Amino acid sequence: MNASTVIAVCAAVIAGASLGVSVYEARAMRMHNRRSVQPSLVLWGKLSTGATSGIGLTNAGLGPAKITDSKLILDGEYLGDLSTSTADKLRDRLALPVATTTLSDRSFLEAGFREFLLSVDSYDEAQHRKLREWIESRLRIVIRYESIYGGEELEAKYN
User: Fold this and answer.
1) How high is the pLDDT of residue 33?
2) Which of 9, 26, 48, 116 is most buried per CB count within 10 Å?
3) Mean pLDDT for the stretch of residues 37-45
4) What is the dihedral of CA 53, 56, 62, 66, to 10 degrees?
5) 50 and 80 co-located in one domain
């Protein structure tokens, strides 16, 4: 083996290692960029006397969320998705004037979205006892979503 062969083999090994590092870094950067704009939906409950109270939804992530599925469950019974017809069923069962925000499958929630899904304007503990019971133990909400930049299916749950 002469010197030029050794130099050629070393150059090929260095080039292969450099290519491997470049591919690894490109994948890591792509994953970081995707995660940096990933949405993060959070369902929360708030009961404050005299204030707007109920169950809300926030997109606490940096990217928009695409809703793929939603479920509203009361006492283990599936009522439907977060549509207008399901909200009407819920209002009828609660027998209280409540405000609702509906989400359809394939709707988008921008980063910073924060809104009540089910709420009363001025919460009164005596008047809204049934709502409190639902929020604390009987009502369950599941929202499935994904980032519009592709990737995994994510889920937000309440109760």
Assistant:
1) 66
2) 116
3) 93
4) -160
5) yes
